[in-house]
Amino acid sequence: MTEEYGAGPSTGSGTSTGSATSPGAGAAEVGPIVLVGPPSSGKTTVGRLLAAELGTDFLDVDELIEQRTGKLIGEIFADDGEPAFRELETATTIEVITDPTQPQSRVISLGGGAVTSAQIRRALTPYRVVWLRVGIAAAAKRIGLNTARPLLLGNVRGQLIKLMREREPLYAEVATIDLATDDVEPEELVQLIIDGLRG
């Protein structure tokens, strides 16, 4: 059973109800701590703070892809298309979460759409995965008119609703800890994650 803090999985209205279950609930206490969630859920901000609190390394997969390719994620989408990006994202994600040369307790932030890859979801099974949820209203407010997010161009709210409805079951599938982020400060989220990991 996924450990929950705050309300349950968010619906398209931005409210939160219910609970999530996960085959990964028996995740090992070693290996990376992986953050998943939709755009604007705070994965990078919370991930950096969590890593600092735990005294370990932090890695953002989107940032790593941009460093390796010399392109922004949006540019990869525009130049090569989404299928090519997803293939690159899958290979990079599996590489970093299974890398035995890195600190066992490192914190890794995945791209918002990484869970759409069945290969990534399978690779996450042994690990501790934190799902950072955010309601539609809060997500739209945080994103604003950020055109750097290639799948959210145009009608931001409409695209967010579509993406969240498609991806929430996938986040729930991999999550071992489930956190609602609306109106919660990043520092508080870090403490909730640590409490969940210890629990």
Automatic annotation (TrEMBL):
| This protein's pathway | Metabolic intermediate biosynthesis; chorismate biosynthesis; chorismate from D-erythrose 4-phosphate and phosphoenolpyruvate: step 5/7
> Which EC number(s) does the record attach to this protein?
2.7.1.71
Q: Gene3D superfamilies in the record, alphabetically?
A: P-loop containing nucleotide triphosphate hydrolases
Report the family membership: Belongs to the shikimate kinase family.
Q: Where is this region: Disordered?
A: 1-25
Keyword Membrane assigned to the entry: answer is no
Q: Which gene encodes it?
A: aroK
| Organism (species) | Microlunatus elymi
**EC class of the enzyme, as a word:** transferase
Entry GO CC: cytosol
Binding residue positions for Mg(2+)? T44
Q: What name appears for this protein in its UniProt entry?
A: Shikimate kinase
* Compartments where found: Cytoplasm
| Keyword list, A-Z | Amino-acid biosynthesis, Aromatic amino acid biosynthesis, ATP-binding, Cytoplasm, Kinase, Magnesium, Metal-binding, Nucleotide-binding, Transferase
| MF (Gene Ontology) | ATP binding; magnesium ion binding; shikimate kinase activity
SUPFAM superfamilies to which the protein is assigned, alphabetical? P-loop containing nucleoside triphosphate hydrolases
Instruction: Give the main localization category.
Output: cytoplasm
Q: Which residues bind ATP?
A: S40, S41, G42, K43, T44, T45, R149
Q: What is the lineage of its organism?
A: Bacteria, Bacillati, Actinomycetota, Actinomycetes, Propionibacteriales
| Pfam families the UniProt entry points to | SKI
Task: Explain the purpose of this protein.
Answer: Catalyzes the specific phosphorylation of the 3-hydroxyl group of shikimic acid using ATP as a cosubstrate.
Q: Could you give the subunit structure recorded for this chain?
A: Monomer.
